[in-house]
């Protein structure tokens, strides 16, 4: 009997292990792009390695760096955008990090534990190098009083794109529409009445919270101090914003946001029957991939303020190169970072539709002569605030987006959902 | 019946117990065969590699993971012993665990039950002289060979929230809906969509295993039962079911474990939303570890998942063995 029990237990353990051994996320798409032998440096990248214009640019820059000198050989590893945090944590914990990673500045706070500050490198380069980057750009690379990399791109997701044909067919003037929340709602109702989808709003997962912040800023929240995030998002004004955003769906002015993430939203918008959608300056290249005919219909403006003449926000994020903790070649990694943020590299970034971080390029004809880039540059200059960042931001966003999903799907009233989220946020 | 047969079976003849005299080599007794001894070196050669594999691939990871759940892993995996602090922290907000646990139970329970029913039905069908059954056998295996992430992407397209989605498009085409339904954006529908995707992906495995079990049942049993006047239902309960029961329990257990640790389907389709309606323990572990960087809570929850899976597996295999004995 005991023997049978032992066999039974062993069988159970083996069965469980056989099945759970593969437990966890599927490794998706991590591969080596470069057939070159590994040099002193391995560059780990995310969207730059995607087969897009920026992906191509990234690889061209890496090749350019390798050709420009003999001391450092850079190899690349393709890390999908959504996997970058996972890969960073995994590689640092396993003691085998890459030497360079490209991450979003808003992820600095939650990832600082896995990166190393680069103040000494900045210091050693001297004032000329430091002053070459705009204040906004350097702020993006700063966390807890320290610099964590070199920013190579600035952007905001809070430009409002519209379909000129849909608005014309609905009799909506875009600038009038974005003059206040009330006018915006009225415009959405007009678009709906004309038989079109008025707007798209995303809330399918926690990362989509980045499309919500600026509405709260327009509603009166000050999201510049991480210590005040909870308090600012839990004021009566923020509850009002929460309700306004919830009603957009409940009143039929947007498809269910709880089921819409970025890929679905961009696909729907590109299909050509949607009035408004908030997105970044890279939007045209994204939409073009779905339906190039949308490009002729695209217009852009800003998010609506709550009241006419009031303020509105544009959360600023971008991209920076950083060095993971435990990198074997931080000095060489810094040299690569400098090359990737050179004037030439920044000009090529701008030509690809990204706002550069060097003042010289930002103020050059490359940006000034491109109305769309100039528009997004002005949004950042005049209404920009760093995208919320804190070590607890992941949980914060999850709690808030879950509450929003509960409200739009009528699991809870907006007031109850907002109150429930705030109770949880205060417990963080 | 089997019990009766066992009673009728003559007791096996035992070899005569060697007497003390025989053992000492008394005249007339057979010489005791020399017992072959296996040297420690031979043991090491035969069992060493297996032990290395078992320890390296099973015991060490389990031991490490269980230890990590009692260690200070939040501090960049320092692994300093921290007692039950991780578990204490995990249970500080029990509400965070209750919903994922209940969602897991629903996901596992319904998807396994549905996969077993569908798989058994499919196996019975394919075990008949159905015309074109070989083609069906191959076609029905198709979902099982597709990688999980692709299955999830496929279902995301099928259940897309606009009329471009296959399901919405179909319903609109036949006039059931005018406006598209946000299947994955509704807490009422999303849990059932992920269950549907899981069942679609998993039932061919059940089917093929049960089909193998069905084909192992001798035709003579059915012929004899038919001669005795047993109808299809009686044949199903008295011959088919006892014949496939062990495999049924085994594949049910395996399907349960697959569903219990399922991550990719849910992550791709809903990321645990909307409003936490599809958050299960596996996605919760991932979120705690990779999104919140709360490693201690994550490894504690993973350890609890392992124990739960172990208990459930032991229970079902015991059930299977007891059934065999009966």
UniProtKB/TrEMBL annotation, chain A:
MF (Gene Ontology): maltose binding
Coiled coil: none
Lineage: superkingdom: Bacteria
Spans through the membrane: none
InterPro entries reported for this sequence: SBP
Entry keyword RNA-binding: no
One Gene Ontology term from the biological process aspect of the record: maltodextrin transmembrane transport
Signal peptide: 1-21
SUPFAM superfamilies given in the database record: Periplasmic binding protein-like II (SSF53850)
GO terms for cellular component: ATP-binding cassette (ABC) transporter complex, substrate-binding subunit-containing
Keywords: Signal, Transport
Family: Belongs to the bacterial solute-binding protein 1 family.
Protein name: Extracellular solute-binding protein
Biological source species: Jiangella asiatica
From TrEMBL, chain B:
Region listing for Disordered, in residue ranges: 1-37
Ranges of residues in domain ABC transmembrane type-1: 101-316
Keyword Membrane: yes
Any one GO BP annotation for this protein: transmembrane transport
Pfam family, one: BPD_transp_1
Membrane topology: Multi-pass membrane protein
Compositional bias (Basic and acidic residues): 1-12
Biased segments, Low complexity type: 14-29
GO CC annotations on file: plasma membrane
Chief site of localization: membrane
Keywords for the protein's UniProt record, in alphabetical order: Cell membrane, Membrane, Transmembrane, Transmembrane helix, Transport
InterPro entries: ABC_transporter_permease, MetI-like, MetI-like_sf
Localisation per UniProt entry: Cell membrane
Residues annotated as transmembrane: 44-70, 107-127, 139-158, 189-214, 298-321
Family, similarity comment: Belongs to the binding-protein-dependent transport system permease family.
Name of the molecule in the record: Sugar ABC transporter permease
Organism whose genome encodes this protein: Jiangella asiatica
